[in-house]
Amino acid sequence: MFAWHKIKKIKKTVALRKNSFRLFLQVGVYIFIYYVAISLTQIYEHTEKICSRVLRIPGRTALHRDWTPFSSFNLSDYIQKFEESSLLVPSGLCEKHSLVTIFVTSPVNGFRQRQRIRKSWGNTSNFNYPAFFKMHGHLKGFYYPPSKNRMVLYGKYLSAKEETLRASVRVVFIVGRHQRTTLNNRATIRKLRKESDIYNDVIQEDFVDTFNNLTLKSVMALKHFNKKCFDTSAYFLKADDDSFVNVPNLIHILLGGTLPAYKPHHKMQIRLTATSGVFLGHELSDIKPIRQMCNKFHVPQYIYPEAVFPRYLSGSGYLMSRDVARQLYEAAWHTEIIPLEDVFITGLCSLNAKLNPVHSPLFSLRKVQDLCDFRENIVQHFFKDPNKKREWHNMTNNQIKCK
Ligand SMILES: *[C@@H]1O[C@H](CO)[C@@H](O)[C@H](O)[C@H]1NC(C)=O
Ligand SMILES: *[C@@H]1O[C@H](CO)[C@@H](O)[C@H](O)[C@H]1NC(C)=O
Ligand SMILES: *[C@@H]1O[C@H](CO)[C@@H](O)[C@H](O)[C@H]1NC(C)=O
Ligand SMILES: *[C@@H]1O[C@H](CO)[C@@H](O)[C@H](O)[C@H]1NC(C)=O
Description:
Layout: H1 4-46, H2 48-54, E1 98-105, H3 111-119, H4 130-136, H5 148-153, E2 158-159, E3 166-167, E4 169-177, H6 183-199, E5 202-208, H7 214-229, E6 233-240, E7 243-245, H8 247-254, E8 279-284, E9 312-321, H9 322-332, H10 341-352, E10 358-359, E11 363-364, H11 371-375, E12 379-381, H12 388-395
One 2-acetamido-2-deoxy-beta-D-glucopyranose (NAG) binds at residues 74, 76, 334-336.
């Protein structure tokens, strides 16, 4: 008897080997394809230039990544006008009076940047009006002090006097939620809850937190202001989380003072006398929508067909009196959504409400040259530097003077 079964066995193992080799190859190919796909999407997300070279899609017909022609552009499909919908809200939000309530839009996992703000300009118990004299006191006589009228008018927001004067200013962060609840995201949520327990300054809203949903976030800020802060706050300020808000300067301006004219353009400063209809920021005009698909700011024609945007204020920071905040919130319900929040709120809604946004040179978009840029403005764009700690140190170091 020849060992037939042995031959069969050998044949079997050869076949098995062949099979497993094929399987191995297939898995390898799948993994390879997977990584290529991942890197392609990463390239697509992170490098607009490569993207626009590879995907030469004509801008006019290009689809927006998140807002397709089938999306609803009606706010009421995303936000409820009056009903509470927040996942997290600071307890007692706006129960106390604040001269101004500052809403900082922040991504749900933006822990580090929020902490930076809390430790620097956002600590309004530390960085309050007395710091004004540290920064500018040596130029007394070269700027207008607060006006008496406004000091009386806003008396309920103020305490102490002269160089120890303080104003109540509230800073809150507004974040969205994750698309999916993965394990990783659950950890983030736990961290966020803890953060909120400690600092009581986080509003979390029930919509997906993406760049293209920033419009919903800003409308949410207006909603909270109108619902909870309207009777207790005189002003609303929206800031990006990479903006630096010079709170002492802000208080000084709201009380009717001016800053020393450090730079020629500072001479354009106005002394605030109005208490309603105030709507200030860095004006942008004649801005054309970007029609390239790969650009972060892409706005296709089906979202906004006109050739230019109406005049608007940069989203890095805009300030308004409470009546303006109310009118903008009302107008938002009759204005079609566009993914750029500043164009939407300060351009389109403002146009619908027949409001007048005004340029102020104190809202700076220029690149930061030195710490004086932080001292000489109300809002300075781009506070996101590794040197931040030292910058902050210098900021409040009254040995260092700006000219
Ligand atoms: C804010 O400043 C006060 C007074 O200097 C300090 O006690 C407090 O710890 C600071 N808060 C944060 C979050 O750094
Ligand atoms: C914005 O949020 C809504 C509601 O959560 C969600 O359905 C939508 O996909 C989000 N849009 C973008 C552009 O992320
Ligand atoms: C959104 O829908 C509501 C109710 O259906 C309507 O009153 C409102 O005018 C719509 N808004 C826009 C911008 O079309
Ligand atoms: C802070 O001040 C020190 C000493 O005056 C200076 O050397 C340093 O460059 C300053 N840093 C920043 C970020 O302005």
